[in-house]
Amino acid sequence: MVLARVAGTVVATRKEPRLEGLTLLLLERLDPATMAGKGEYLVAMDSVGAGVGEVVFYVAGSSARMTAATEGKPSDAAIIAIVDAVELDGALVYRKDVA
After folding, report:
1. Alpha carbon distance 30, 40 (integer Å)
2. Which of 8, 42, 78, 86 has a 20 to 30 Å separation from 24 between CA atoms?
3. What is the pLDDT of residues 8-64, one digit of tens each?
């Protein structure tokens, strides 16, 4: 699993029919020590209802096709969790804002 922040959405009106109905999100990988973006981006299928600005875990490769939403789909990256908090060496480095 890799830590990332949802940076935006990706819209593709013409796509493989098995992708119909799936949300595509633009992710930026994060440094877990600082929670700063690394400037490395990728597109992932959303299987958990994540939104822009949220911190998520994503998986890549064959693991990306193991969720209920992505099974049998041509996917190389899938969001599998929305992160509530990150603790590193006993210190809280991230906590999701609950509004």
Report:
1. 8
2. 86
3. 999 999 999 999 989 999 999 999 999 999 999 999 999 999 999 999 999 999 999
Please name the residues in contact with 17: beta carbons below 8 A apart, sequence gap of 6 or more.
Answer: none
CB-based contact 2:58 (threshold 8 Å): yes
Q: Report yes or no: 31 and 20 within 8 Å, Cβ to Cβ.
A: no
Q: Does pLDDT of 98 surpass 90? A: no
- Long-range contacts, stretch 10-18, CB < 8 angstroms, 24+ apart: 10/43, 16/74, 18/72, 18/73, 18/74
Residue range 79-95, pLDDT digits in tens: 999 999 999 999 999 99
Is residue 64 helix, strand or coil?
Answer: helix
With left for phi above 0 and alpha for psi between -120 and 50, is residue 65 left, alpha or beta?
alpha
Domains and CATH numbers, the chain: 2-95 (2.40.50.220)
